[in-house]
Amino acid sequence: MNVVSFFAGAGGLDLGFQNAGFDVIWANEYDKEIWETYEKNHPKTILDRRSIIDISTDEVPDCDGIIGGPPCQSWSEAGAMKGIKDKRGQLFFDFIRMLEAKQPKFFLAENVSGMLLNRHSEALFNIKEMFKNAGIGYELSFELLNAANYNVPQDRKRVFFVGIRKDLGFKFKFQKPSFEKVTLTDAISDLKCNALAAQEGNKTNGRKCEFPNHEYMTGGFSTIFMSRNRVRNWDEQSYTIQAGGRHAPIHPQAPKMKFIEQNKRIFVPGKEHLYRRLSVRECARIQTFPDDFIFYYTKVAAGYKMIGNAVPVNLAYFLARSIREQIMMNETVELKSLAV
């Protein structure tokens, strides 16, 4: 089955779908810092570099599925149905525009868990209604998932919308995972001794890294960062990998930060040298990107951004496989009923 991807980023979601047997034939990403990484790691996919706003529906290939993480930042406007003034928020409506025009068998959209806050309830209701009523309509399934349960060594909660076109006659069911817990030891213990600090200005070491992208951002830590413990032990799963490198979790070689008072912690005295941020490659491992997936950037911040914004590959694979299996099962049932 053919899939097109919007807001593709580095392509964690896309890679998961490819691993599940889908062909990602076309993708769209507007951020120029990501283009080289996407194109070199997805050589069979056509990458459209324009903003989705500037793409007509006729320019998007016909497909079986549409996937992506449309931004929905302006919840208050969306909830009041006054139109989203924030440019990022407007992009959500362009995702709906593509869905209505192409009418694929299914779609998958991912977003942050913050949309579940009570103050966004009206916005969320309206967004669900827009998904349900796109074109001839979709049977919508909606779920909050933690990547930690899907063969991913990280606590990462995100919401997923999966729609099945109504004429297919079934509704997608989120399958319960049965994976054992994956720890930081499992994910990154082999990388602990050869990470490089970024060069001056947090520029990349390039090919000086013994292992691709195994370099970490340097510099001070904000008071917000120091307000909480940022260290997970080797036998635990990572905190959420964020898009900002300065907020990357601390490597598990360090002891947990010492509590001083509310909203204030420090690095354990005498152990300060152990407190480094996770490297770009370690974050990629935690997001379950394979080691042959190389990230291209001049400043390491761009590497952290690409990885932190991605859907973990293993979670994407699990969802893609579930979608594929349920569509194929439904088609098999239909064929049998026609043969009777």
From TrEMBL:
It comes from the Bacteria. The active site is at C72. It holds the Pfam family DNA_methylase. Keywords: Methyltransferase, Restriction system, S-adenosyl-L-methionine, Transferase. Its EC number is 2.1.1.37. GO terms for molecular function: DNA (cytosine-5-)-methyltransferase activity; DNA binding. CDD domains: Cyt_C5_DNA_methylase (cd00315). It catalyses: a 2'-deoxycytidine in DNA + S-adenosyl-L-methionine = a 5-methyl-2'-deoxycytidine in DNA + S-adenosyl-L-homocysteine + H(+). It is an enzyme of class 2 (transferase). One of its GO terms (biological process) is negative regulation of gene expression via chromosomal CpG island methylation. Belongs to the class I-like SAM-binding methyltransferase superfamily. C5-methyltransferase family. This is Cytosine-specific methyltransferase.
